[in-house]
UniProtKB/TrEMBL annotation:
Residues 1-29 form the signal peptide. Transmembrane segments: none annotated. It holds the Pfam family Abhydrolase_4. One of its GO terms (molecular function) is hydrolase activity. The keyword Hydrolase applies. It comes from the Bacteria. It comes from Streptomyces atratus. This is TAP-like protein. The lineage of its organism: Bacteria, Bacillati, Actinomycetota, Actinomycetes, Kitasatosporales.
Length: 510
């Protein structure tokens, strides 16, 4: 962004806040709603399928859903200026006698498309779903909303590891600087507005365009942070709220997994014990220590020379750790088995044997290593950098990597590595600080390696009117409808059905 445009963006802060404050009050003739044309827009519902090859759209259509594009301002400080569209889907309530209203759904990310969410959530909700208009939303610049793609040739911008030594880290500095520069050149005019706060403002436009006074909300992971921001910007606009995998503002940072190193290392050790008990199947080692030694051998081999996976992929020390970390988000046997099969293949590659990736691994590598993941990675990076970018100095990341490496050899160099945010323009608005109390149902596993249990405890303390549903002993990220835990699903459905929070915090066993 040019200096003049950056100054303009900073100067617009006060105007943005003023505009937001205006939208939270009833418009009067003396003080008309500056967003009236967005709040009062006609919603043109239509079929979701975009063509014969659109499986998502066809699935939504088959379920009886419809779709629409909601027009919102690019810059809420300039509602008369440029506009963009936000894609939504709707599965209408059928139990009209007990209709609650819209339940807006967010699958996390940042930059997680959520247009599909009425389909899986209607299944776990059962008859409770009949009381809601289930609303899926692709956040601004994500999925079918107005797009953003920085044209990168990789999809791993925020999940890269620093590498084994200072020379490897310097390569990462160069990559981060180049990615930031390319995104600035491609989309510098819109980057200041690719933020969680603006997505929350879009949510309120959707609420108004649907003709509703309040929204109910279900958000996973990053979606919990989005929900928190919405409640701060638009007090009194929420009805029933479920935050699953709670990401408190204090734990939301530009390095994404910073602070979660120990939880991921613990998840790795737990998985290694699981794999050791199945040595006859996977051959990774008969003890936890032997399995961890296999993992270390793979990481050392990649640091020496990238691992060749099939004919198309070279997996180096910067991207390999994210393959492990990505497999540690669940303690379900199926997910652990997937990681074990991948590690078995990687161990052969580390021994320089020719290997062919599974279909699942090939898709993962295609996303991480090529332009196939560029749009999603661009969007995620733009959101985080637009929210919390902080110039720390190149050397600070390396010091943090080195400090964490001994305690967390896998997660430390990834969680503390430099990101393109170091070279991004500073956010146009300060990060959201919560100063409210919202009655919500907070859901978290004690061993969640992504959104730490401590974050859920912090939000429970912040929101004294809320209740915390803890899943004791689980190393799982994402619980409601995703973990197969009847205790969790039944308690959340009871809240969504009645609107009454439990009298006290609850615990379910893994």
């Amino acid at each position: 962004m040019s200096t003049s445009r950056r100054i303009k963006a900073f100067a617009a802060c006060a105007a943005v806040l003023a505009a937001t404050a205006t939208t939270t009050a009833t418009a009067t003739a003396a003080d008309p709603d500056p967003l009236a044309r967005f709040h009062n827009q006609h919603v043109d519902w239509h079929a979701c399928a975009l063509g014969a090859d659109d499986e998502l759209g066809q699935s939504l259509d088959a379920a009886g859903a419809d779709c629409a594009d909601i027009t919102v301002p690019l810059d809420y400080a300039d509602p008369g200026g440029r506009t963009i569209t936000v894609a939504i889907s709707r599965l209408k309530a059928t139990d009209t006698a007990h209709r609650v209203g819209p339940l807006l759904l967010n699958d996390g990310g940042p930059a997680g498309p959520s247009l599909h969410m009425p389909l899986p959530k209607s299944k776990v909700m059962g008859e409770v779903a009949d009381r809601y208009d289930l609303i899926g939303m692709d956040p601004r610049f994500v999925g079918r909303s107005t797009p953003l793609d920085c044209g990168w040739d990789l999809g791993s911008a925020l999940v890269r590891s620093a590498g084994a030594d200072l020379a490897a880290y310097r390569e990462e500095v160069a990559v981060a600087r180049e990615l930031a520069g390319r995104c600035e050149r491609a989309h510098g005019d819109v980057l200041p507005y690719v933020t969680t706060r603006n997505t929350a403002r879009d949510m309120d436009v959707i609420r108004a365009a649907l003709g509703e006074n309040v929204l109910s909300y279900l958000g996973y992971s990053y979606g919990s942070y989005l929900g928190e921001v919405y409640t701060q910007l638009f007090p009194g606009r929420t009805d029933r709220m479920v935050l699953d995998g709670v990401n408190s503002p204090e734990h939301y940072s530009q390095t994404l997994l910073r602070g979660a190193e120990a939880a991921n290392e613990a998840a790795l050790r737990a998985w290694a014990s699981w794999a050791a008990a199945r040595h006859g199947t996977y051959g990774l080692g008969a003890t936890r220590g032997e399995v961890l030694a296999t993992v270390e051998h793979i990481l050392d081999a990649a640091a020496e020379k990238p691992l060749r996976i099939g004919k198309a992929y070279l997996l180096d020390e910067h991207v390999l750790p994210s393959v492990f970390i990505g497999g540690l988000g669940s303690d379900l046997d199926e997910r652990r088995a997937d990681l074990a099969a991948t590690v078995r293949l990687l161990a052969r590659a580390a021994d320089r044997e020719p290997v062919e990736p599974s279909e699942a691994l090939a898709g993962q590598l295609e996303f991480l290593l090529t332009g196939a993941g560029a749009a999603s990675s661009s969007q995620m990076t733009a959101i985080i950098c637009g929210d919390v970018a902080e110039r720390r100095g190149v050397g600070s990341y390396w010091r943090a990597v080195e400090e964490s490496r001994q305690r967390s050899p896998l997660a430390g160099p990834l969680a503390n590595n430099i990101t393109p945010c170091e070279f991004w323009d500073r956010p146009a608005e300060a990060p959201t600080v919560l100063g409210n109390d919202v009655p919500a149902l907070l859901v978290n596993a004690t061993g969640d390696p992504r959104t730490l249990y401590a974050g859920a405890e912090a939000m429970r303390e912040q929101w004294s009117s809320s209740r915390l549903l803890t899943v004791e002993g689980a190393r799982q990220h994402g619980l409601y409808g995703e973990y197969g835990n009847a205790c969790v699903d039944e308690r959340i459905n009871a809240y969504l059905r009645t609107g009454r929070l439990p009298a006290h915090d609850l615990t379910c066993q893994a």
